[in-house]
Design a protein that fits this description.
The chain has 128 residues and is mainly β. It contains 2 helices and 10 strands; from the N terminus they run ββαβββββββαβ. A hairpin with a 6-residue loop joins strand 8 and strand 9.
């Protein structure tokens, strides 16, 4: 289960060893908060998936971990089942969109809305 940290200046997604293997990725993901354009909750994360898997692992409607390429760039997916997920749209970063399944979706949204100057420490949020 990935761990999400909302720092004063960035969102950090620390992937587990298994998630790194499934996504064929060696490093964790960091996104500057200033690059995040929107974040929304969804009950069905699968309707937000766009493009083709490259590289990553997918079992339809069950698991999606890794990068998905589409005509304008690429997205990172960490979807498990059909549980509540957060869709984060980003500009000017490695990924255009990150979709992550987490039990703490409301906490993540609240943490992302805080202006960077108000939060003194990172907020730890565990993903499923």
């Amino acid at each position: 289960m990935a761990v999400l940290f909302v720092h004063p200046d960035r969102l950090e997604i620390r992937l587990t060893r298994a998630e790194k293997i499934l996504s064929l990725r060696r490093s964790d993901i960091e996104v500057p908060l200033e690059n995040i354009r929107s974040a929304v909750l969804t009950d069905d994360p699968w309707i937000w998936v766009r493009g083709i898997r490259a590289p990553g692992t997918a079992v339809p409607l069950t698991l999606a971990v890794g990068s998905w390429k589409f005509h304008d760039g690429k997205d990172f997916l960490l979807i498990k089942g059909t549980r509540t997920s957060v869709v984060i749209d980003i500009e000017g970063a490695e990924f255009s969109r990150i979709i992550v399944t987490t039990r703490h979706s409301l906490t993540l949204l609240r943490a992302l809305r805080l202006p960077p100057v108000e939060s003194a420490a990172a907020t730890e949020i565990a993903a499923d």
